[in-house]
Amino acid sequence: MKFRIKPAPFQRSTKRTTKGIMLELSLVLVVVWFVAILMNYTLMGEAEGTKTILMGDVALVAAFVTDVVTALIIKKNVWQYFVGSYSYVTALIFVLTLPVTVSYYAIVVGIVLAIVFGKIVFGGFGYNPINPAGLGRIIVALSFSLAITGVPGLVSDATTSATITSALNWKDGILPDGFSLGRLFLGNYAGAIGETSALTLLIAGIYLSIRKIADPRLMVSYTVSAFLITLFMGLAFGVANPFVYGITHILVGGLAFGAVFMVTDPVTTPTSPMGKIIFGLGAAAITILIRVSGALPEGVVFSIVFMNLLTPIIDGLVKGKTTDKIGQRWGVILALLVLAIGINIGVAFLGGVA
Amino acid sequence: MGILFSRGGCHIQGHKELTHGKKIITLTDPKAIGKIYIPLVSGNGKELLLDIKEGDYVKKGTRIGVSQGFYVPVFSPVSGFVSGTEKRFNSLTGRPVDHYVIDNAFKYETEESLKKYDYDKVSSEEIVEAIKEAGIVGLGGAGFPTYIKYGAKNIKTILINACECEPYLTTDNLMVVEETETMLKGISLMMRASQAKKAIIAFKEGHSDMKEAILKYIDSYPNIEIKEVKDRYPAGWERTLVWNVFKKEYENLPSEIGVIVNNAQTAMAVAKAVLEGKPITERVVTVSGTAIKEPQNIRVPVGTVVSKIIEACGGYKGEQVFLLAGGPMCSKAQMNDQFVVEKQSGGYTVLFFEEIEAEPCLRCGACTLHCPASLQPVEIKEAVEKKDEKRLQDLKVNSCIECGLCTFVCPSRIMVTESIRKAKLMLKIAAAKAKAAKK
Fold this sequence. Notes:
The structure holds two protein chains of two kinds. By secondary structure, chain A is mainly α. Chain A has helices spanning 18-44, 46-73, 78-85, 87-96, 104-118, 132-143, 145-148, 164-167, 181-186, 198-210, 216-237, 242-251, 255-262, 273-293, 300-317, 326-350; one strand at 2-3. Chain B is globular, with a radius of gyration of 22 Å. Classes of the chains: A mainly alpha, B alpha/beta. Strand 1 (2-3) of chain A pairs parallel with strand 15 of chain B.
């Protein structure tokens, strides 16, 4: 008889594994991709629909090849490395942030650089400080700007020649002709393939929260903060309907996609409930700052990657127990929200946007 | 669970069905029990002050010695000659210590060295004195001397813990059913000792056998109530239990809010000590797990060698096992089966050896959301990796009770609890160094 030694506990939950969580997450991403394919087929045409299919395939294959080459270089079992690197999740998130006009070349460069410089150089999955898909999206946005602007409009709306985020005037929030909140919610407009249907994303977000795959604190904090900041901005700017202005902000431009799939990446976001709420709030403040006062039409990915860099600092600020000083913690969150609203309004006025 | 905080806990599989439906068996065969060994060191690692020496004849109930630090007398569980002293592994201190060897004569001659009291007349002081002299300790596993708790003032409620939240263990449950009246009498005595007006027996919901057994007698005890709590581990941890029953928190001890918490079997031991003058000389232990042939509950003298109990349960399955002195969540794996039954031992779990491979930390925060002490285990783990002592101080590492839930829930199968043990050790070493530097 051999008595073996190991630290307690000896019973483990059999319900959840990291592999299971990542697999289920990617299934949800595939569903979103599928919805995007269907919408592009029916609303834009066969060419766009086929392109949407191929975009995902190209990204997945490029991610797989990157993993295989990496495994061969660092001399690991190729299959085990691929299964444990979760690059397929990165590939799916990355490709869903791109519009259908993107070149395959840009997709390949983006995903390879995202995996190499967003993940592998830091030691692989679990050690990356920033969202690799976000990094890939930024690389494509900065290096291939021609490839992703000039998005053709919908077939039924052929005159629109840009994405709604560049067509929309962020300071007054007036929607282009033919657009309504309902249309934005259902997703009948041009944009990145994964971002266009807020309804699909809402269902995905609820599903991921119930299954405890993504933390709703991050999603809700991000979207609610974005809504509150823009609601008060709308009031300050004197727009016709500040409420609609706020809703518009959270329905368009990938904010919902970012909320469900990018803000919630656990590796690159704080671990404590308090930290998660601060993270979402910070990301919302920066998103709106870039949108309204910045030079870029969109700020979701930039804001999330920027907040990723602050994650260790936010984690460090949350001390002791989660039950400590609850009142004080809510006070801090409220103060940060007021600060975020104040900065956004202040910069807009000082910058002459409003 | 709140938006910003969590009181933690989660339902875990109990595996209680392995032994719950079986009758308690008593080990009587002299060969099966063998010699009795009494550790000459108490749980705090200090040697006992001995009353008897090698070669003396002891009876069941003869005082062998008393512990240093907290006063806890130790009694012989059987009658026979003290034939010598032997070094054996000790599960409480985790190291080999001297044991008295008692050649069990199997006559069970009894020495009645303790006073007996009349149930109706015994006074508050007399009860506490009887508990102290009988060496009654917390039988839920902690082994804390019971009389210390009864020194507290302004006690309003006695809370009896029959939750037994460790998987596999069923002794508390079966004993509550078997010795319900003794327990209720013990509780009444505890109420008298502390001048508490009320007592609550708490157990996990779904245990209809305990509920029925208690309800049968409870009419004669108007101040005792029952309370079913949710089956969420660690339901039996003092703080979790007090929160679930009273929705109150305390700083160090539950007596701050007028509560004394005692295990159900401690109440039985109190009744036997006060009314019959009997110290704890035997113990019902659960022997269960996946790698034991016949899991069961078995009554043995305190000081029986665990290998003998394993034999009585048909022996081990398989060649490599984990032998745990207790349940699978908190107990240490033992290096051999030559240690002995202590009076606070609730059972032994034998599991097949398995190696679990960990994945990188996902930082999902599941450990933080499940920690019953509301700590942030993932942050503690990261601070340990960075050797950041300042951060470990900030994270209140020493509030951890090592319940094991952070490791249990981790989807990456990381041994988070072990990181927290390391963190505690790091802080201990740092404090010792700081102290040495001051001198």
